[in-house]
Amino acid sequence: MDKENKTSQSDIVESSETDVTPKLEDLARLVLDHNDQGSFTIPAEGLYPHQWLWDSCFIAIGLRHHDIERAKLEVLSLLRGQWANGMLPHVILNPNTRDDHGHKLRDINLWQSWRSPNAPDDVSTSGITQPPMVAEAVVRIGDKLKWPERRAWYKMVYPALVQYHEWLYAERDPHHEGLVLQIHPWETGLDDSTPWMYELHSHLLPLWIRFLKKSGLQQIFGWFRSDTKYVPAEERASNIEELACYSVERRFRRKNYDFDKIIDHSLFAIEDLVFNSILIRANQQLKHIAKSIREELPESLRESMAKTEKTLEELWDPYANEYFSRDFVTHRLLKESSVAALLPLYAGSISKERAEVLVRLLENEHRFGPAYPIPSAPLDSPWFSPIRYWQGPSWVNLNWLIIDGLKRYGYDDHAEALKESTLEMVGKSGGFYEYFNPLTGEGLGANNFSWTAALVVDLLRK
Ligand code: GLC
After folding, report:
1. I need a labelling partner for 48 at 20 to 30 A (CA). Which of 1, 178, 235, 461 fits?
2. Rounded Cα distance, 58 and 396, in Å
């Protein structure tokens, strides 16, 4: 953990009382420059040495304000990882990294993407995806371009985007029901969020992991974890949760990333609320791109898109007055509350009445109203921990998504208040942390984290 940087950055931030805003933006740009690898940006040095899918989208949204060509490159560099079936992988592995023991290619060997005939030949990637933020990043970049350049930009990326969205439906909506399913917690971007971990602990843990848990032997796995070398273990997912994630990943590898084999006996098969809300917005953006360049989206894709918006309503629970994720097989709602409940605001497809209920939920100080919102698990959840990863801390990217949703539904004051508290939280922490203690505003996880920096730039420019 780089606590030294924290001191120096907070000195700079606080040195000028009259002109704090431009300083914060300058510092954010320094972080982005520092993590720049030429054509893509790593999320943070050490802990995250590769390129992540939704990270790069958020990063491009920030980069567009001062270097539009670099922002485009950030998105284009994601497309080089696209699989022949259309999947955009959640990580494009950086061949120039070494682990703590100086071993090159550790993560590349972990994924072994070459086992799939669909994987690209020239880059190694993971074998799963992440929330489809790409269309949003493409349009945000487009907004900064004059028409002829915007047209050229949209035309350049359109085929890859269509292929990706078609893959999402073809592979992840096998029953054509409208929602797409996720097979690994890492696909949601909220790695250890409470609904997924509740499912894991209550009935999904494989027997051998249950045995390790009972005997306390899971501690041994802790020695092999690389994340806890950079960040205190109590701020990360637990050993059992990580072990389960890695064991699921190894099964995918054994099945050569063949979805039909994976889905049969898949440990996780969940229609995640965050993922599907983001997909709805991405579909709207893809439609906008198609319309702008006078392209016709394939009919089956248009039908699926419409179905997703309709089916999101099936995730509404009238008893809890909340949206939840759903089990793909049984259609049981996973009623463990999390920040995901607010993401349908970003989807923008829900009714005004539903949006109003979500805004009331956001206002509820016993649930989502700590000093530095928005907590990733509600304050009244039995899971809530102010420091543990996606089980309590506030994250700038989720705030950004919810700010966007609030604006679209006309809640400008709420959006402005959330923007101000987000910027205050980052400024006060004295760094650009990965996540923040919602009770104190203290920065947690990796420092100099790229999407925090990029989205601070974007929020300051709004
Ligand atoms: C963590 C986050 C994930 C992010 C990745 C790289 O795994 O949970 O959302 O993409 O780090 O920053």
Report:
1. 461
2. 10
- 58: CB partners within 8 A, 6+ apart: 133, 137, 397, 400, 450, 451, 454, 455
Give the position, in ligand 1's atom list, of the atom nearest the Cα of 192: 8
Biggest alpha carbon–alpha carbon distance for the chain: 64
CB 320 within 8 A of CB 341: no
Decide whether any atom of ligand 1 lies within 6 Å of the 49 Cβ. Answer: no
CB 77 within 8 A of CB 70: no
SS3 for 49-72, per residue?
CCEEHHHHHHHHHHHCCCCHHHHH
- Which of 21-35, 182-196, 363-377 is predicted least confidently? 21-35
Amino acid at 354: R
Distance, CA of 376 to CA of 209 (rounded, Å): 26
Does ligand 1 have an atom closer than 6 angstroms to the CB of 191? yes
Q: Is the pLDDT of residue 170 over 90?
A: yes
pLDDT in tens, 331-361: 999 999 999 999 999 999 999 999 999 999 9
Instruction: Judge whether 434 counts as a catalytic residue.
Output: yes
The one-letter amino acid at 332: R
For β-strands 443-444 and 91-92, DSSP reports them as: unpaired
pLDDT at site 211? 77
Is the distance from the beta carbon of residue 89 to the nearest atom of ligand 1 less than 6 Å?
Answer: no
For 360, the token pair is 């009331």
* Helix and strand counts by DSSP (H, E) for the chain: 19, 9
Cβ neighbours of 379 (radius 10 Å): 18
Cα 112 from chain centroid? 23
At 308-332, the pLDDT tens digits run 999 999 999 999 999 999 999 999 9
The pLDDT tens digits for 212-222 are 777 877 777 77
d(CA 307, CA 324): 18
Domain 3-461 in CATH 1.10.760.10: no
At position 216, the amino acid (one-letter code) is G
Catalytic residue among 173, 191, 192, 309: 191
Query: If we measure between CA atoms, which residue out of 378, 280, 278, 404 comes closest to residue 322?
Result: 378
Report the C-alpha gap between 138 and 273 in whole angstroms. 23
Token pair listed for 103? 């071993």
Average pLDDT value over all residues in the chain: 93
